[in-house]
Design brief:
The chain is globular. It is of the alpha/beta class. Helix 2 runs parallel beside helix 3 and helix 6 crosses helix 7. Helix 3 links the parallel strand 2 and strand 3. The chain is 36% helix and 18% strand. Strands 3-2-4-1-5-6 form a six-stranded mixed beta sheet, sandwiched between helices.
Length: 204
């Protein structure tokens, strides 16, 4: 493909509540639905020919709306699921700091990518399952733009790996809700064009 867009999902109820969110299928908020519409409109002129999405509704509904506007189907892929946060699912951050101090010390260090969430995945686990989805679009010889609709930690790991950055640099990648990141593909090499672009949301 000529280009690949990586898109984070819209705001969910769990995002609004500020709790740990991984595999819980939290529905979009009213704000999230406005973000969805603004994002569909922003990508309406893009020559999108393939859409692959996380199966979770906060990503899937956005992907389906964009795909429908281009007359194609959105294909769910478990490789794009959010990091499995294990025991941190649904837990508020003050409680995480209280109960999981040892984990947080590892998480804040340079070895954060290999530190598994208590009862869950590590960021390297996420990269191992998500990057092949991105790579498949890079290798696709067809014309057009591919779209991946996914989650916070997936976007971060895709970006650092695609740009050959040290994996622990994931903290340097900002990923706002409904943020658009895009890559131009030349000779099988992705070059970033936009990173976490949220101008289409007009302050939403």
């Amino acid at each position: 493909m000529n280009r690949i867009i990586v898109l984070r999902h819209v705001e969910s109820e769990a995002n609004k509540s500020g709790v740990g969110l991984g595999r819980t299928d939290s529905p979009a908020t009213e704000l999230g639905l406005r973000q969805l519409q603004a994002t569909v409109e922003a990508l309406s002129s893009e020559p999108i020919t393939r859409v692959v999405t996380s199966p979770l509704s906060r990503a899937r509904h956005l992907a389906e709306a964009i795909a429908d506007s281009h007359g194609i189907d959105a294909m769910p892929n478990d490789g794009l699921l959010e990091l499995d946060v294990g025991e941190l699912e649904g837990v508020e951050w003050p409680i995480v700091r209280e109960r999981f101090g040892a984990f947080l010390r590892n998480w804040r260090g340079n070895d954060s990518v290999s530190a598994p969430m208590p009862g869950g995945e590590s960021l390297l686990d996420v990269l191992e399952r998500a990057y092949p989805v991105f790579e498949a679009l890079v290798a696709d010889p067809s014309e057009g733009t591919g779209l991946l609709v996914t989650h916070n930690f997936v976007v971060k790991m895709l970006v650092v790996h695609a740009l050959a950055m040290p994996h622990h640099a994931w903290r340097r990648i900002d990923t706002g809700l409904a943020g658009i990141t895009s890559f131009r593909i030349a000779d099988g090499i992705p070059a970033v064009e936009r990173l976490n672009d949220r101008h289409h949301l007009n302050g939403l």
